[in-house]
């Protein structure tokens, strides 16, 4: 009986721990946000591969001395969650190495290395943790209880009184937050995508990056495939901030819901998951009208999630499920293969191929 009781108690405590892991998950996100705001990864990176002590970090991030004990506690969370690593420095010559008061050395991990350097993911991580995207989730429960017309069903609009894209149109700072985030993701992902699936971009002579923002993806494609004429289509206020100089890319102001300029291939990276099925069909239908037949090289190249497509371990499945809720804030949707197939065929396409080589995302080629 004692053994059974002990087993039952342990199961209850394990369940409570799992409940707490979910309850306090936001602490991990806010600790990461604080690290970004304080540029802690940059402070550690400044000291090279040997790492940095807490006093060395403090000299870079410039916080009041009264906050140093609290910073030590923040670093403990960031180490426990794998953002940073910590170790005692090697003992000095003649030292026993038993000095527990020796300051810890904090070093970068594979996760935090993504937050430093010229092509880092800090901007998109900052975007994803911005209050504008987080605060609507405080109202998620009440949002579910309200009947709303489809055009008014966006959780972002429910919280802020306007759509995400409407706010980007009116608020230059918010617009820059989104554009900089997308550029950082493209700078990170496109070299991998081109390396892993170069065949998707071969055999075409022109490409339009639909909703391509500041053109980071198109620039990467143009650099890898000099024979492909690359253009970027986006709204006026986005194109107005396009980089100056010779980028190798043409920028075109326009609306993908109205008309898309012709090319051999259309490219949509992280675009369709922002829209519901009917809107995706409109975008894809305009893409189909702008490309030649399949036998002449016409295709649409999509980078997005395809839920459940192999390989898919537990971490992939969890992140795909979480991301589906994240894009729900702007009335978006992550799709499984059946859902993708449905909108492809409704938009008049005849075939598709999914290549799951980008972590939780895939390259999807769609043919007229």
Automatic annotation (TrEMBL):
This is O-methyltransferase ZRP4. The keyword Transferase applies. The active site is at residue 273. Belongs to the class I-like SAM-binding methyltransferase superfamily. Cation-independent O-methyltransferase family. Homodimer. Residues 138-350 form the O-methyltransferase C-terminal domain. Residues 20-117 form the O-methyltransferase dimerisation domain.
